[in-house]
Every structure is written in C-alpha cells, then in structure tokens.
Write a structure and sequence with these properties.
about 110 residues; five-stranded antiparallel β-sheet; binds adenosine monophosphate; binds zinc ion
C-alpha cells in the first residue's frame, strides 16, 4: 500500500529505529513509547487488521510471535515479562491500518487491562 505509514517504514522511505528485519517481518521502536521497552512487530505484507486477514496469512502472522520472542530476548525482558497487544478497530483505538503487535515491557504493568 503506497500511502500506508508502516509500509513506508518497511521500505525505509521514512525513518524509524528498526531493530530487526527479514523477508517476512519488521521490528522497530514505537515513536511514542508507553513502556520502557515498546516495540512494534509487523508483517512486511500489508495486512490491515485481524479482521482483514485470511487463512493464507496464518503462517506470516505466526512469525510475529517468533519475532516478538526474539526481540524480547534481545531487549533483556524475556524473563521479567512483557505484554503483546494487537489493537483491532475503533473501540481498541487501532490508529494504523497495517496489523501490528505491540511489545511492551521493562516495568510492571497495569492489571487488570482494559
Ligand atoms: P495502534 O493504536 O495500535 O494503531 O498503534 C499505533 C502505534 O504506532 C502507536 O503506538 C504510535 O505511537 C505508533 N507510531 C505512529 N507513527 C509511528 C512512526 N512513524 N514510527 C514508529 N511508531 C509510530
Ligand atoms: Zn501497510
């Protein structure tokens, strides 16, 4: 998608702090961190949301978990813990229509959520 912010980040058309990128996923720092560690783990394919995925995307989206796991190890928060969040649609305040997994950690978080 030519006018998608995250597609532009993947293609390095706009700057971001990319920690990891392979042929399937990109991991980069959230520009407005909500926790000491706040990364976004996204597929390189433009999939708008969970609602916008189809079954053929299951393998790609599974790789978001592997990417988050590796990123948490790299950031030193694998043992202390972290939260993975995918906001979908207006009630969840999904602002960018390119599916993204938030990886939040580095400090104790609010409980319960919501
Ligand atoms: P969401 O509300 O789930 O759609 O989350 C969108 C996230 O993208 C927010 O946490 C923003 O801070 C983040 N964000 C927006 N623009 C950028 C950018 N240029 N680089 C990195 N993160 C961004
Ligand atoms: Zn996109």
């Amino acid at each position: 998608m030519t006018d998608c912010l995250f597609c532009k980040i993947i293609k390095k058309e706009i700057p971001s702090e990319i920690l990891f990128q392979d042929e399937t996923i990109t991991v980069f720092k959230d520009i407005n961190p909500a926790a000491p560690v706040h990364l976004l783990v996204i597929p390189n394919k433009h999939i708008p949301s969970v609602r916008g995925m189809d079954e053929s995307d299951e393998i790609i989206l599974g790789k978001l978990f592997s990417g988050a796991k590796a990123a948490a190890e790299k950031m030193g928060i694998a043992e202390t813990g972290y939260r993975l969040i995918i906001n979908n649609g207006p009630d969840a305040h999904q602002e960018i229509s390119h599916i993204h997994m938030h990886l939040l950690g580095g400090g104790n978080m609010m409980h319960p959520m919501g």
